[in-house]
């Protein structure tokens, strides 16, 4: 059939066939990574690389204290840069996290990852676990000041501005995305779950929005009653940094010893 085409058209057709073949191979490779990881429960005694997922707006520098502390413990760390400016569809951000996890597992040879989601990044992590294969790829999930049940700040901002970017709309209390995410089991089987929140958080309000049924839910003030850690201070808070060892270790997640820095 190709013989009937001109040389130029023949080259074009062959180029398209090669491109399609490369795409198919890439999709098959991703499927293999996910199917291998789905062979059984993730072993809890084999900590793998750690993925750090930033909050609304995707400012990865906010995660520097976490990355430094984890690397000091000998953990391999990947900071996940969100697609676009980090204010778009949270479900699309979860799909991107799935791609990053596939790549980290493939290149590291590890059997699982641990994931820390800060602020809206914690919602992204839950979407990944629930809807994008993360339940078979992650061993531990730790979320920090995440508006798991929405935040009145997003509602106020949307009201004052007459609307806000898609991720902001999805973080409104009782948004369609959060209703779906919180229907049934808030902490699906697969990873072990933990959350940390601060009573002084003025971004995620009410602060109890950050807690999850079925998780180890920690309040900074339970361990340091005088703490006034704001939302932006959570990634560097002494309680959070201490929890990296007690939550992402080999033993079941527990609260760290009381610490105020």
Automatic annotation (TrEMBL):
<keyword id="KW-1133">Transmembrane helix</keyword>
<feature type="transmembrane region" description="Helical">
    <location>
        <begin position="12"/>
        <end position="33"/>
    </location>
</feature>
<keyword id="KW-0812">Transmembrane</keyword>
<dbReference type="InterPro" id="IPR029058">
    <property type="entry name" value="AB_hydrolase_fold"/>
</dbReference>
<dbReference type="InterPro" id="IPR000073">
    <property type="entry name" value="AB_hydrolase_1"/>
</dbReference>
<protein>
    <submittedName>
        <fullName>Lipase</fullName>
    </submittedName>
</protein>
<dbReference type="Pfam" id="PF00561">
    <property type="entry name" value="Abhydrolase_1"/>
</dbReference>
<feature type="domain" description="AB hydrolase-1">
    <location>
        <begin position="49"/>
        <end position="146"/>
    </location>
</feature>
<keyword id="KW-0472">Membrane</keyword>
<dbReference type="InterPro" id="IPR053228">
    <property type="entry name" value="Stereospecific_Lipase"/>
</dbReference>
